[in-house]
Amino acid sequence: MLFATSNTFETLDFALSTGARLPGLTVAYETWGQLAPDGNNAILVCHGYTNHPHAAGEGGWFEPLIGPGRAIDTDRYFVVCSNMLGSAYGTSGPASVNLETGRPYGPDFPKYTTVDMVAAQEKLIDHLGIGQLKAVVGYSYGGHLTFLWGAMHPDRMRALVPVAGVITRKTTAAEVAKIRARFEDLPGWKGGHYYGRENESGVRDRLVEMRLERLRMYGVGQHLADTVGDAAECERILRERAETWAGEFDANSLSILYEAGIGSSAERIADRIKAPLLNVLASSDSVVDVALGQPTVDLLRGYGVDARFLEIDTPYGHAGPIADWRKWAGDLGVFLDETP
């Protein structure tokens, strides 16, 4: 689906790193602030695995940190967030129509990798007239893309801020198969060609179930318990969020996005990174171990990178950098101010 707040960019014949091609590429994106005449005040924000390009404004997933006078100050910076290649919020992905068949690609969407995610973003920022980025800032899966941006395009940005992300993904084919298996018992799954029968097929209900699991795993349930208090109200909010998301997302994107990360690593080319880097992790994160933070920074420092590690002391796990944004917003603002 495409949010009313999103725009799209389209280009033809997009070559993928796997040797496959997309006859047409659509990238959904949102922007905030104004691009400077020299095109060099832009910040690219990369979203997480199941998230979307609506990072700022009402309901934005990174809203506390993006806006006038905030850490990512839209009075100074032109902020861009695009939907990942293969996702479900307007960028080309499994729900897109295959021009050869007239039906959604589904599981037949061409194989691609994280390299292609970055390439799609690069096409977009070129289209927008952006020169050297002020920074790339990414959360979770987007944090990994931030490391890749720094290594693949070292002269394209002046700062890097991976948040709750890893320099090397450990995704396996078995994990991808496990995601797909969650749908295989559904009567209308049809090997992933379920479109048009989301409710009758049972896919939407299964997505709600999986989303509730992920929200709790990420620490969102704990944050609601501490801020809302009433258990029934917390459960209502969690379910409402899960149902909203399940009505928007594509079950095939869950596995295809994960598969794109198999073997993905910026570590082997980390010696190319030039921009100062702030590596931000949460103390209680069960998805990205905080113990990875300092060794990653030490690795980069060994290559001469001005790399720093910031640990957020938070009980809210993977959601901690957003739920406890006040604990590090100042550090982020200072870091961005210190870079040219």
Provide the low-confidence segments as ranges: none
Instruction: Order the strands across the largest sheet as they lie in space.
Output: 1-2-6-3-9-10-11-12
Sketch the major β-sheet.
8 strands, mixed
Q: Helix-strand pattern, N to C?
A: EEEEEEEEHEHEHHHHHEHEHH
- Tally of helical runs: 10
Question: Which oligomeric state applies?
Answer: single chain
Q: Based on Cα principal axes, name the global outline.
A: globular
* CATH fold topology of the largest domain: Rossmann fold
How many domains? The number is 2
CATH class descriptor of the largest domain: Alpha Beta
Terminal Cα span: 37 Å
Radius of gyration: 19 Å
What's the mean pLDDT score?
97
Which class of secondary structure composition applies to the elements?
A: alpha/beta
Brief summary:
By secondary structure, the chain is of the alpha/beta class. The chain has helices at residues 114-127, 141-152, 173-181, 203-217, 220-227, 231-246, 251-260, 293-302, 320-323, 329-338, and strands at residues 7-15, 21-32, 42-46, 66-67, 72-73, 78-82, 97-98, 103-104, 135-139, 160-163, 277-282, 307-312. The protein is built from ten helices and twelve strands.
Description of the molecule:
This protein has 340 residues and is α/β, with parallel strands linked by helices. The protein has two domains: 7-173 and 263-338, Rossmann fold, CATH 3.40.50; 183-257, no CATH class. 32% of the residues lie in helices and 18% in strands. The chain contains ten helices and twelve strands. The protein has helices at residues 114-127, 141-152, 173-181, 203-217, 220-227, 231-246, 251-260, 293-302, 320-323, 329-338; strands at residues 7-15, 21-32, 42-46, 66-67, 72-73, 78-82, 97-98, 103-104, 135-139, 160-163, 277-282, 307-312. The strands form three sheets. Strands 1-2-6-3-9-10-11-12 form an eight-stranded mixed β-sheet, with helices on both faces. It has a two-stranded parallel sheet with strand order 4-5. β9 (135-139), α2 and β10 (160-163) form a beta-alpha-beta unit. It is globular, with a radius of gyration of 19 Å. The mean pLDDT is 97.
